[in-house]
C-alpha cells in the first residue's frame, strides 16, 4: 500500500484563502459551494445569511479528490456532500502556522509544559491526546465596512479566523459553544467512531485541521455497512451538519495502517484540531 507524498490539487476552488476575504472574495468562494446561483445576486454583499447556509454543498471537484464514497449508495451521495462541507487550504501557510503556535501555547498554559498525553478520554473515545477550551478565542469584531470591499491583510489572531468562519458560512444569529482545542499524539493518537453528545451542542460540528493531514472515517450509526472517508489536509476547514452530524459516527483511525484514503496510507503525525460547535437551541437543533 503506497504512502502519501502529496495532496491532490484543488486550487480552482481554493484561491480565496490566502487572506481574510473581502466581500467580493467571500461571495466568489461561497458561490462555488452553493447549489443556487440565485443566492448570489449583485445585491448580496457576501455575508452568509441563513438562506446561503442552506444551499452550501461541497463542489464535485473536491468530492472527487477528498471523499471516498465507494461504500455509500449513489442515491445518497448528494445528501452527504451537502451535509459534510470541506474547504481545502482555507488557511494560508502563515495563518496555519499562527494557529498552530497559538493552539500550542494555549495547551501549555492550560495543562502545563510537562503534561503527558492522556491514554484515554473520559468517555473512552479518544486515545493519546491533550485538550483544552479556548473561550477567549470566541471571536473578533468584523472588519469595518470601509475596508470590507478592499484587499485585507491576513488574519492575525485565532479570534479573527474563527469570526470569519462564523460570519461567512453560518447564520448570523447563531450562538456558539467555546472553541475546543484537541491535539493527537503522532503515531498513537486517534478517535474512535462516535456521534458528538446530542445534549452538548447543536446541528453543526466544525473544525480546522492543523499540523498534518488526517483521514476521517464516518460510519452510519444504524447501518454500519454504509461508511465513507474524507481526506482532511492541514489548513482545511470542514463541518458536518444535519444527517451526517446525527446519523454518522465519525473518528480518526487509531492504528497507523488504517489511516489510509483510497489505498494510500497517510503518516500519523501530530495533529491539532480547533473545533467549533453551535449552541443547542430549539430553533437550531433539528429536533434532536
UniProtKB/TrEMBL annotation:
GO biological process: DNA damage response; fatty acid metabolic process
GO MF annotations in UniProt: dioxygenase activity
Alpha-ketoglutarate-dependent dioxygenase AlkB-like domain: residues covered: 85-277
Pfam families (alphabetical): 2OG-FeII_Oxy_2
UniProt entry keywords in alphabetical sequence: Dioxygenase, Oxidoreductase
GO CC field: mitochondrial matrix
Spans annotated as Disordered: 34-53
Domain of life where this protein originates: Eukaryota
InterPro entries recorded: AlkB-like, AlkB-like_sf, ALKBH7-like
Alphabetized PANTHER family for the sequence: ALPHA-KETOGLUTARATE-DEPENDENT DIOXYGENASE ALKB HOMOLOG 7, MITOCHONDRIAL (PTHR21052:SF0), SPERMATOGENESIS ASSOCIATED 11-RELATED (PTHR21052)
Name under which the protein is recorded: Alpha-ketoglutarate-dependent dioxygenase alkB 7, mitochondrial
Gene source species: Podila minutissima
Amino acid at each position: 500500500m503506497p504512502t502519501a507524498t502529496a495532496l491532490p490539487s484543488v486550487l480552482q476552488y481554493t484561491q480565496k484563502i490566502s487572506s481574510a476575504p473581502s466581500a467580493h472574495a467571500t461571495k466568489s468562494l461561497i458561490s462555488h459551494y452553493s447549489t443556487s446561483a440565485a443566492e448570489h445576486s449583485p445585491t448580496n454583499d457576501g455575508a452568509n445569511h441563513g438562506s446561503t447556509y442552506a444551499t452550501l454543498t461541497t463542489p464535485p471537484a473536491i468530492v472527487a479528490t477528498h471523499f471516498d464514497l465507494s461504500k455509500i449508495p449513489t442515491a445518497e451521495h448528494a445528501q452527504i456532500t451537502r451535509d459534510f462541507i470541506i474547504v481545502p487550504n482555507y488557511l494560508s501557510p502563515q495563518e496555519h502556522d499562527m494557529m498552530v503556535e497559538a493552539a500550542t501555547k494555549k495547551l501549555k498554559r492550560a495543562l502545563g509544559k510537562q503534561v503527558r498525553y492522556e491514554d484515554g478520554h473520559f468517555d473512552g473515545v479518544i486515545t493519546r491526546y491533550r485538550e483544552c477550551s479556548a473561550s477567549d478565542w470566541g471571536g473578533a469584531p468584523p472588519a469595518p465596512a470601509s475596508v470590507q470591499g478592499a484587499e485585507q491583510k491576513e488574519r492575525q489572531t485565532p479570534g479573527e479566523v474563527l469570526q470569519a468562519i462564523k460570519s461567512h458560512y453560518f447564520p448570523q444569529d447563531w450562538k456558539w459553544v467555546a472553541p475546543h482545542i484537541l491535539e493527537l499524539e503522532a503515531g498513537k493518537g486517534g478517535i474512535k467512531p462516535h456521534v458528538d453528545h446530542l445534549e452538548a451542542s447543536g446541528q453543526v460540528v466544525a473544525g480546522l485541521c492543523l499540523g498534518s493531514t488526517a483521514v476521517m472515517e464516518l460510519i452510519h450509526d444504524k447501518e454500519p455497512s454504509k461508511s465513507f472517508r474524507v481526506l482532511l489536509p492541514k489548513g482545511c476547514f470542514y463541518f458536518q451538519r444535519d444527517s451526517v452530524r446525527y446519523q454518522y459516527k465519525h473518528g480518526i483511525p487509531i492504528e497507523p495502517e488504517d489511516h489510509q484514503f483510497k489505498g494510500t496510507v497517510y503518516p500519523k503525525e501530530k495533529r491539532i484540531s480547533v473545533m467549533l460547535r453551535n449552541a443547542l437551541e430549539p430553533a437550531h437543533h433539528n429536533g434532536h
